[in-house]
Design goal:
The complex is a heterodimer of chains A (about 250) and B (about 500). Chain A is built from eleven helices and no strands. Chain A has about 250 residues and is mostly helical. Chain A has one domain. In chain A, helix 7 runs parallel beside helix 11 and helix 8 runs antiparallel to helix 9. Chain B is an alpha+beta fold. Chain B folds into two domains: about 260 residues, no CATH class; about 210 residues, Jelly Rolls. In chain B, the strands form five sheets. In chain B, strands 3, 4, 9, 10, 11, 15, 17 and 18 form an eight-stranded antiparallel β-sheet that branches. Chain B has a seven-stranded antiparallel β-sheet with strand order 8-7-6-5-12-2-16, with no helix packed on it. In chain B, helix 4 packs antiparallel against helix 8 and helix 7 crosses helix 8. Chain B is elongated, with a radius of gyration of 30 Å. Classes of the chains: A mainly alpha (about 250), B alpha+beta (about 500). At the A-B interface, helix 2, helix 4 and helix 8 of A face helix 2, helix 4, helix 8 and helix 9 of B. Chain A: Keywords: Membrane, Transmembrane, Transmembrane helix. Chain A: This is ABC-2 type transport system permease protein. Chain B: This is ABC transporter permease subunit. Chain B: GO terms for molecular function: ABC-type transporter activity.
Chain lengths: ~250, ~500
């Protein structure tokens, strides 16, 4: 495992694209948060809703770059044929996949922390006259939202890695991931049967997982914050399981 | 591919033009022989239909009250407090309005005083009390001055400014056969004509009287219920009419457009001397998305377009990135070294296939989805067949242009994941963001004007009305740009992406 980890880490740090993707994820997260917080109209003291969630809205966009990072971690190897070398060097395929997961999680956690803290700081600067406790890491719900958003980004990376392992192509892989993230909630929005709609919102990886960002009005959420993040974790686990099974059974 | 190896065509043909046709043929052969690309386009069409089926089957509005339909065939709100009596033949009715005050629903405390710009208090002549009946009315409003409105959609301005005890407004409606004329006055002596309305199907006896309506107010992305009270004086009928007893009642209390009175509010009517105090809620106006919660429109049925977009973007990107991956692109460019022509040929092929997929998908989804939704009791906002054609062609063009943009970005990035993400985020994310409840209308409109997502305007079938305050935002199906202008924004992005791709393709080694 140490050898596999070392190999994956070497691949990761010697390519330039992962670094640019992580920097890009931080940049677009902070940028979208800045735009959203300056666009929102603060007519009441609490900005009519949830200042923490508005500040962290950049994660909606930043996750797309983390998803590319996850997809490319596997599909690039299939594209160039390096996967055969990797699997010849370390024939235990599960070990290779596990090492990829560890390296990706570490990278996504570092990039995600920078992105989420940057977004929160932007919110603090842009949103005027917040009551003292809001947008501070000493506030329990805000800390939970920040920590949960980083975990969410890591899980999105792992979900993308699992899907890319299953489909072995970067364009198709990212298409499936973005469909799951963005289209699932949009389609759920057209369901007029309230029970079915609520169910879909509970099981969609994005709308469930981002419940972790809510700090006010928790009962109105389709799912409680930690349970929502659990749903996203379930999606990531299922994708990795399917990807892992296919990796072990198919020719590379 | 062998065909493109012989760049000279048969004698008598322009060689350049002929070789472009061969290039086109070569690209088409590549496309149709890769099974997963063809499957991707079929999946795109099926996704449009599948979501329409899902939206249709999942709707559950059975048992909802029927939606009132106005004389023009459009859905209308027809709820108001009416103090009326039947009057036969020709005649006139006059009143003065000296006060109009409104209260808004306030979640916790019940009611608080507030402004309702389109609160209405005035005179009305209706064919009957039936929901959706033809009418003509002249009224004082919260902050839009005196208006004359008829048959729900027509609106004309009279005297400006709000009414007060110091500056009341006199209103008059005169009937002559099926023509109603509205007048206003600041003193009850000097009258100005505001407008006339011809009511189709007005019988000899009409319902005449005072009405008060108070539509919900818009704010913070939602609406709040309201109730308004007006003070009338000097109510008299003249001309050929003789007054009997005035009877007051709430009209349209069970209409699906009526959300009821706010807590601690109710409709009423009282008389002391020649003073009438009337309290009412609701609105007499065309229905919009906000005021008709049981309604649906074509865009809801075509939500599968979002899913289809991702499929065509993936196929568009793969159409060129695969060539880079297996170095086929060198053969392609060796066969025809004018590189930009390859981009044009690929655009035509992938655009045409995506257009056909989109057209087949929407042509099936619109009738199936609307029928299913109607069968489940959903009222679908009416659309003319030319509008439906525009929605179908526009959606197909949206998919085609997005596929071409995906292909162009594939040529720029030479790698699938980046291309797919860029185009998907650019087209889909604006909609995801406008659906966030706290997104202010200004920001949502801006996103729907400058991002490629502006092209979803081709799916708009709803009509905004200046005399109805509502959430006219992209999320509710009202786009800031005209359908084809919105599409032109996307087309502009596609052309820009193709231009960048052409420059890079010519500069870089393949």
């Amino acid at each position: 495992m140490t050898v596999a980890l070392h190999a994956e880490w070497t691949k990761f740090r010697t390519l330039t694209s992962p670094l640019w993707l992580l920097l890009g994820a931080v940049a677009v997260t902070v940028a979208l948060s800045a735009v959203a917080t300056s666009a929102v109209s603060c007519t009441t003291a609490d900005c009519g809703s949830d200042p923490t969630r508005i500040s962290l809205v950049g994660v909606d966009l930043g996750q797309a770059l983390v998803a590319i990072l996850g997809v490319l971690g596997v599909s690039n190897e299939y594209g160039t044929g390096v996967i055969r070398t990797s699997l010849t060097a370390i024939p235990r395929r599960v070990t290779v996949l596990a090492a990829k997961c560890v390296v990706l999680s570490g990278a996504a956690a570092v990039g995600g922390t920078a992105a989420v803290l940057g977004a929160l700081l932007t919110g603090r600067i842009v949103l005027p006259d917040l009551s003292g406790r809001a947008l501070s890491l000493s506030d329990g719900p805000t800390l939970r939202a920040v920590f949960g958003s980083v975990l969410y980004l890591v899980l999105i990376g792992l979900l993308s890695l699992g899907i890319a392992t299953a489909v072995r192509d970067s364009a198709t892989g990212i298409g499936v991931v973005l469909g799951l993230l963005y289209i699932f909630p949009i389609v759920a929005g057209t369901i007029s049967d309230p029970h079915l709609r609520l169910l879909l919102e509970k099981i969609a990886p994005m709308s469930a997982g981002l419940a972790i960002q809510a700090t006010t009005d928790l009962p109105s959420l389709p799912i409680s914050p930690w349970a929502g993040l659990g749903v996203t974790a379930g999606w990531a686990a299922a994708a990795l399981l399917v990807g892992g099974l296919l990796l072990c059974r198919r020719d590379a | 591919m062998t065909a493109t190896m012989t760049p000279l065509g048969p004698p008598g043909h322009m060689p350049g033009r002929d070789s472009f046709l061969q290039l086109l043929h070569a690209e088409w052969t590549k496309f149709r022989t890769v099974r997963s690309w063809v499957h991707g386009m079929v999946v795109a069409a099926l996704l449009v239909v599948a979501v329409a089926l899902l939206a249709g089957f999942s709707s559950d509005q059975k048992g909802a009250s029927p939606v009132p339909i106005g004389p023009g065939g459009e859905p209308v709100a027809d709820t108001y407090y009416f103090v009326h009596q039947p009057l036969a033949g020709d005649g006139s009715v006059t009143v003065s309005v000296s006060a109009l005050s409104s209260s808004l629903s306030d979640g916790l405390t019940g009611l608080r005083p507030g402004a309702v710009p389109w609160a209405k208090a005035g005179l009305i002549i209706r064919e009957s009390t039936r929901q959706g009946a033809p009418y003509a009315a002249v009224m004082a409003t919260g902050s839009h001055g005196v208006r004359m409105q008829d048959d729900y959609v027509n609106d004309r301005a009279g005297l400006p400014d709000a009414v007060s005890a110091g500056s009341p407004r006199w209103l008059r409606l005169a009937r002559s056969a099926d023509t109603i004329t509205g007048y206003d006055s600041t003193d009850g002596r000097k009258w100005t004509e505001v407008g006339t309305a011809k009511l189709v199907g007005l019988g000899s006896t009409a319902q005449v009287g005072l009405f008060v309506a108070s539509p919900p107010t818009v704010g913070g992305g939602g609406t709040a219920g309201s109730v308004s009270t007006a003070t009338f004086q000097d109510l008299r009928v003249h001309g050929g009419w003789t007054a009997g007893n005035w009877a007051g009642e709430q009209m349209g209390a069970h209409s699906p457009t009526f959300s009821g009175y706010p807590a601690h509010g109710s409709g009423s009517f009282s008389r002391s001397g020649d003073r009438y105090t009337v309290t009412g809620a609701g609105d007499i106006a065309p229905a919009v998305r906000d005021t008709l919660p049981t309604g649906g429109h074509l865009r809801d049925i075509l939500t599968g377009t979002f899913a289809a977009l991702i499929a065509v973007i993936v196929v568009g990107a793969l159409f060129i990135t695969t060539e880079y991956q297996n170095s086929m692109v060198r053969t392609t460019l060796a066969a025809d070294p004018r590189r930009s022509r390859m981009l044009v040929a690929k655009s035509i092929v992938v655009g045409a296939v995506a257009f056909v997929a989109g057209l087949v998908g929407t042509a099936a989804a619109i009738p199936i989805g609307t029928r299913l939704a109607s069968a489940h009791g959903v009222y679908i906002f009416p659309t003319s067949s030319s509008t439906q054609l525009r929605v179908a062609l526009g959606t197909a063009a949206l998919l085609a242009t997005t596929a071409i943009t995906g292909m162009a970005c594939g040529a720029i990035f030479r790698q699938g994941a980046g291309a797919v993400t860029t185009v998907t985020v650019a087209v889909v994310l604006p909609y995801v963001l406008t659906a966030i409840p706290f997104m202010p209308a200004g920001a949502a409109d801006w996103l729907a004007k400058v991002t490629p997502g502006a092209a979803f305007a081709v799916q708009q079938t709803l009509v905004p009305y200046h005399q109805v305050a509502s959430n006219y935002t992209p999320y509710y199906g009202y786009y800031p740009l005209q359908p084809w202008v919105g599409f032109a924004v996307l087309a502009g992005y596609a052309v820009a992406a193709l231009a960048v791709a052409a420059v890079l393709l010519n500069r870089r080694d393949a």
